[in-house]
Amino acid sequence: MESENPYSHIKEFEEVCNTFQEGGASIDLMRLKLFPFTLKDKAKIWLNSLRPGSIRTWIDFQAEFLKKFFPTHRTNGLKRQISNFSAKENEKFYECWERYMETINACPHHGFDTWLVVSYFYYGMSSSMKQLLETMCGGDFMSKNPEEAMEFLNYVAEVSRGWDEPNVREVGRMKSQPNVKGGMYLLNEDIDMKAKVAAMARRLEELEMKKVQEVQAISETSVQAMPWFIFQSYEHLVEECPTIPVVREMFGDQANVIGQFKPNNNASYGNTYNSN
């Protein structure tokens, strides 16, 4: 039981159920009918011991199942692993991040806000990892909002996956060279350069995206503000523009129509989990 995860069992079961439906039956009804076939041993005994009629919905079933097989002490143990997370010696950034996310996913009901999830990982990183992270984001990681920070951590883990990181001897040399800025260790020159190049590439992508969005915004504003083009040429003075008399006449006619309109004040307006 301790080696298995009830949340994963339910998730995998739902994924299978989502691939098909039984006639016109609802997906929840199908889950209630099929889930018992995924249980065995103690889990099957528990299911058979339930009072008849006590489970009426799929949500009720999940709640009872998790209460039984994911007890409070197990939840608290995983929450401690999250809040006390720390990098292992010589662990690469992406390995550390993946291990942390595995812990998070093992306890989806941990209840921590996103900013806490980010903070626990940040303060559990090694100094060289923090240096790598800050180098790639230009030193403003802590100024990001929680969602941006999570996205950036995923990005750094993915980008750094193929990098050659320092061996044990280089790590020892790095530890003997404290960074005067904040007690962080100096990065290997090759890693430092790759981090800076990756940071520049990401910054260029952001600037390019911002530029495209600004152009689109200007285009949309122009279309909304100018539903038709009045001035077809600027080779003449404004006073000489041949379209102005036509425009004046058009607006004059509209004003006359509006002046003739008198509202009618009397008008009415209607209407297979193993528990071992």
UniProtKB/TrEMBL annotation:
<dbReference type="Pfam" id="PF03732">
    <property type="entry name" value="Retrotrans_gag"/>
</dbReference>
<feature type="domain" description="Retrotransposon gag">
    <location>
        <begin position="33"/>
        <end position="125"/>
    </location>
</feature>
<protein>
    <recommendedName>
        <fullName>Retrotransposon gag domain-containing protein</fullName>
    </recommendedName>
</protein>
<dbReference type="InterPro" id="IPR005162">
    <property type="entry name" value="Retrotrans_gag_dom"/>
</dbReference>
